[in-house]
Amino acid sequence: MQASSSVSQVRIALGERTYPILIGAGLLADPGSYQAAPSGGDALIVTNTTVAPLYAERLARALAGRHRQVHQVALPDGEQHKHWETLNRIFDVLLGHGADRKTVLYALGGGVVGDMTGFAAACYMRGVPFVQVPTTLLAQVDSSVGGKTAINHPLGKNMIGAFYQPRLVLCDLDVLASLPARELSAGLAEVIKYGPIADMAFFDWIEANVDALRACDRDALAHAVERSCQIKAEVVGQDERESGLRAILNFGHTFGHAIEAGLGYGAWLHGEAVGAGMVMAAQLSHALGLVDAAFVQRLTALIARAGLPTRGAVLDAHDNAGRYLQLMRLDKKAEGGEIRFVVIDGPGRAAVRAAPDALVRQVIERCCR
Amino acid sequence: MQASSSVSQVRIALGERTYPILIGAGLLADPGSYQAAPSGGDALIVTNTTVAPLYAERLARALAGRHRQVHQVALPDGEQHKHWETLNRIFDVLLGHGADRKTVLYALGGGVVGDMTGFAAACYMRGVPFVQVPTTLLAQVDSSVGGKTAINHPLGKNMIGAFYQPRLVLCDLDVLASLPARELSAGLAEVIKYGPIADMAFFDWIEANVDALRACDRDALAHAVERSCQIKAEVVGQDERESGLRAILNFGHTFGHAIEAGLGYGAWLHGEAVGAGMVMAAQLSHALGLVDAAFVQRLTALIARAGLPTRGAVLDAHDNAGRYLQLMRLDKKAEGGEIRFVVIDGPGRAAVRAAPDALVRQVIERCCR
Fold it and tell me: B279: closest CA among B264, B299, B261, B263?
């Protein structure tokens, strides 16, 4: 890989909560990258035990001139730790240092670290500023952008959280080189997602570049991250609190969340569950007469080429479809027990709608291994 | 007491988050009182084990025509339960019922119930609507109005929370008749507060009517609640998220929170700690040359007549002032370890400022029993 000096910027336009996403190489260690974030008070770097040895010191050095003191806390790694007890460790550290309202939290890690750090920032003293420094592809193209923060509850994923925007998102492409192949693939699920819901030209581009992306080609990653963030920025700018449009970003997630919850968080990576979930959602769209079989086949093939599962997990040997339905009724988009599915209403356009249980059952039976 | 048909209304003007406070007799049981709140979905009444037998069924009946189902949960009573484990019981009940984003939470109780219900509403699925039905004087004149929600952390009061506005606040004056005298006095602390910080004519009125208020005179209570809410509405409307002005509503609270935290939450009622805290803050204002001794004496006398303590608790036999200072440095208004005190800058006007440790120590030594 070559060093690149080009930095691109995507703006999330939300009035007084507007903030930039910076995308480029070598950003993390450069003190100049953090201009958009508040300075002066203390900083707390929240990371996990996997990422800490790789990048925490580098980030701490970059922040040293901007903050009075820079503290760190490394949480246990993994979706299974995304719950209250882990969140509370952040509060313990903040209060142990006497951190005040001027303290800035830095989320250094993947989606789990970002979700928990953002929610901690939303709640600590009723709100302190935070910055996202995502270290996984999935976090760079999706979870670090848009202000959704949350922890899981034993009865549902992301059930306890807040809409709370960061002051800055810093996508350093260099850090993706340290990602295991499985994590890179998981991130590609969220990249692929943007094609069917919003931009089939981007989908064409991903088809042509999926091998380069899996090989961690810097230029390919730069384009994938930038275009993904642009699409997400446009959707979030129109519907920050998911009262309508924003729900389309959850294409594949209704089925995917059922897989994650049904197997126990962490058994499959989030992106893996979304991969299989997108196939199921596409099959449902087809069953509803919204897309043809060729589209479903094309999407399924790309998900497979990205190294992702294309079949759902069996969650219950006796009544698998029933178990999926039970779990999906807890989805946050559900209303009055009616599941709201994100479907593809023709390639490049998504919609949210209900579907008959019998049809959903057929799709689940067909799509699970 | 006579039934009164007059209902007064105070508006909290916050753009799209604007909502009404209704003040009057017999409101709780009247289905017509709830027009400003969303209807249609499920409702969850969150209350405590003391209030539930008195009012929960009456509220449930009033809501029956507005919601598909009305659920209830009764939390343990008291500030010492205002923590994560109790909050999580609300989430358990919501998820156990499969409650969706259209679910409306009703906080039926005092400040603790209101703070926890509001915070639960702020976090559940990243935000569902809630309504305040305060059953204590303190909650009617202060905590239910303005959208501050929180739980306590072992290292500090209200450290984990959100600014999250209710859709409606319903102050039923009849319920105050069931309040123990000690709770009524605690509520008067927050009523008295509005005088020195904003309106000395109201202070004169309280001096003239404190006995009627303690005797639960309906007309006196109606005026006290309405004027308190008006002043609070004006302040909150100008500074929802406490970036400046709103901090004046915490007159007496910096010292008061130290008493509550130092003795363990629940030993003193919040209003009792605020009573003694106001005397200490007035003494500090005098020591800073901002008010004369006569004003301090007048405020102290009224606090005593309201049935409240006028001297702070001894938190540490060896270094009492040191312990107060240590606890106050954790106050949310503190910046960089510097405590920001709400002082009276002439009767009827408050300001927020720092003070020399030596001076604060003298005040604490003088004011504690």
Answer: B299
In chain B, residues 116-155 whose CB comes closer than 8 Å to chain A: 122-127, 148-150, 153, 155
Structure tokens at B357: 């440790």
Residues contacting A107, CB < 8 A, separation 6+: A46, A47, A113, A114, A116, A117, A118, A130, A131, A132, A133, A134, A144, A166
Distance, in angstroms, between A292 CA and closest chain B CA? 33
Give the position of tokens 């509001």. B118
SS3 of A47, please?
Answer: strand
Quote the CA–CA distance of A105 and A126 in Å, as a whole number.
14
Residues 332-361 of chain A whose Cβ lies under 8 A from any Cβ of chain B: 332, 334-337
* Complete DSSP assignment for B75-121: EPPSGGG-SHHHHHHHHHHHHHTT--TT-EEEEEESHHHHHHHHHHH
The yes-or-no answer to whether A8-178 and A181-367 have a common fold is: no
Alpha carbons A204 and A195: distance in angstroms, whole number: 8
Mean pLDDT of chain B: 95
Interchain pair A126, B161: CB under 8 A: yes
Confidence of residue A154 (pLDDT cuts 50, 70, 90): confident
Let me know how long chain A is: 369
Structural domain boundaries in chain B: 7-178, 181-367
Quote the pLDDT of residue B333: 82
pLDDT at B96 over 50: yes
Domain A8-178 has CATH 3.40.50.1970: yes
At B35-46, the pLDDT tens digits run 999 999 999 999
In sequence order, what are the residues at sequence separation of 6 or more whose Cβ sits closer than 8 angstroms to the Cβ of residue A17?
A: A147, A165, A240
| Type of residue found at B304 | A
What pLDDT score does A81 carry?
94
Give the per-residue pLDDT at A3: 44
**Known catalytic residue: B190?**
yes
DSSP string, A317-340: SS-HHHHHHHHHTTSTT-BTTB--
pLDDT at A266 over 90: no
Residue B101 forms contact with A (CB below 8 Å): yes
Cβ-nearest to B163 among A68, A126, A241: A126
Token pair recorded at residue A177: 């080189």
User: B7-178 has which fold?
Assistant: Rossmann fold (3.40.50)
B116: nearest Cα among B146, B91, B141, B142: B91
Interface-testing mutation among B67, B87, B97, B123, with chain A (most A C-beta atoms within 10 A):
B123
Q: Which CATH code is given to the segment(s) A181-367? A: 1.20.1090.10
Q: Where are the beta strands (DSSP E) in chain A?
A: 8-12, 19-24, 43-48, 70-75, 104-109, 130-134, 148-153, 156-163, 168-172, 341-344, 350-353
Cα distance from A233 to chain B (closest Cα, Å)?
19
Q: How far is residue A284 from each of residues A125, A205, B325, measured CA to CA in Å?
A: 44, 25, 63
Residues of B in contact with A127 (CB under 8 A): 162-163, 241
Burial class (CB in 10 A: 0-12, 13-18, 19+), B116: buried
H or E element that contains B168: strand B168-172
Beta carbons of B100 and A124 less than 8 Å apart: no
Which among A146, A149, A138 is positioned nearest to A169, based on CA atoms?
Answer: A146
pTM more than 0.90: yes
Q: Point out which residues pair with B230 in neighbouring strands.
A: none
By the 10 Å C-beta count (0-12 exposed, 13-18 middle, 19+ buried), B311 is classed as middle
Active-site residue B57, yes or no? no
ipTM associated with this complex: 0.93
DSSP state of B359: H
